[in-house]
Amino acid sequence: MRTLVLLGIVGFLAQLVDGALGMAYGVTSTTLLLVVGANPASASATVHLAEIGTTLASGAAHWRLGNVDWPVVRRIALPGAVGAFAGATFLSRLSTEAAAPVMAGILLALGTYVLVRFTLRGARPRPAAPLRTRFLAPLGLVGGFVDATGGGGWGPVGTPALLASGRIEPRKVIGSVDTAEFLVTVAASAGFLLGLGTAGVDLAWAAVLLAGGVLAAPLAAWIVRHVPPRVLGSAVGGLIVLTNTRTLLGTGAVPALGGAGEAAVYGLVWAVWAAAVAWSVRAHLAGRRAERAAGRHARAAGDAESDQVGPLA
User: Fold this and answer.
1) How far apart are CA 144 and CA 239, in angstroms?
2) What stretches pass through the bilayer (predicted)?
3) 258-312 and 229-251 helices cross at what angle (nearest 10)?
4) Nearest C-alpha neighbor of 105 from the set 14, 27, 185, 51
């Protein structure tokens, strides 16, 4: 019972993150499942099975709001499904001992990406670049493979790349990536079922994760409006980096550092994490001050123009 409660909290927290950032549900939930003791393949399989429900609901909502570019969905979803199926069968064939450092390494890289991206750039897209049709298929293939082997990564791989193209408005980037993810999660789940069988997936865990995500959806919408995505992204990225650094050190995937060495690594991670969150908070507050100052200047200019026009009238 205690495990189910923890998994419900995991699903709740992961949906809060994904709802506020448009990415990182899989990365966050898989990381937390590993922390509570799941093995890598089962963790990824369980998360993807739960995501079938969450991505279906998300895609339907985006479709109703007109946030989906269907040509993009068609061109990215099918390669993504192929990559996810391949990644799931690959991960299923690894032993737990071999899979743990592999997944931790992927999650560490994704967490570092999320931390750096939101700390240094906030939630704004990069400068526009031409979007070519031949770019979407490899993007989907890589994103699907990383998503299945890392327990997440479809959003962190696909969303920034499409935002950087400058050819699709941001709301349709998020809506299209979320809608395409439904097919990716179905393919990944099929791959895990083929490789692990039903014994490799805990249906109760998946159901509790899904329930937690559904409960979190309204609060996630509130967070989008009130908590800066830049700050939340830095906080979540640091959490993922910290937990997967701990996994790598514990599995012996890196040379033995000894007690003092491990303490130094943890101290460095904590210091970078705290500095990143502080930087994001400072950048957000500076942006708010700049917006207020610009508003005051615009109002002052409008008042001055009115004063000049008044006497002439």
Assistant:
1) 23
2) 98-116, 203-224, 231-257, 263-281
3) 170
4) 27
CB neighbours (10 Å) of residue 229? 18
Which among 58, 76, 83, 72 has a CA at the least distance from the CA of 179? 58
Instruction: Give the CA angle between residues 14, 19, 25 to the nearest 5°.
Output: 35
What is the C-alpha separation between 299 and 106, in angstroms, rounded? 50
Residues 6+ apart with CB under 8 A from 211: 8, 11
The DSSP letter of residue 47 is: H
Nearest-5° angle of CA 96, CA 101, CA 102? 90
Q: Could you count the other beta carbons within 10 Å of the beta carbon of residue 226?
A: 8
* Nearest residue to 253 via CA among 111, 87, 42, 108: 108
- Whether the CB-CB separation of 173 and 139 falls below 8 Å is answered with no
pLDDT in tens, 179-212: 898 999 999 989 988 887 766 677 887 888 888 8
Whole-angstrom CA distances from 6 to 112, 119, 205, 218 are 25, 29, 10, 20
Give CA–CA dist 61/42, Å, rounded: 29
Angle (nearest 5°) at CA 115 between 176 and 56: 25
Domain ranges of the chain: 2-312
In whole angstroms, what separates CA 98 from the centre of its chain?
24
Decide: 173 and 163 in contact? Cβ < 8 Å: yes
Measured in whole angstroms, the distance separating CA 196 from the mean position of its chain's CA atoms is: 25
Task: Tell me the C-alpha distance between 24 and 18, whole Å.
Answer: 5
Instruction: Say if CB 233 and CB 120 are below 8 A apart.
Output: no
pLDDT in tens, 270-312: 999 999 999 999 998 998 888 888 888 878 777 676 666 555 5
Tell whether the model's pLDDT for residue 128 goes beyond 50. Answer: no
**Sequence-distant (≥ 6) Cβ neighbours of residue 8 within 8 angstroms:** 208, 209, 211, 212
Q: Which two tokens stand for residue 246?
A: 């701990």
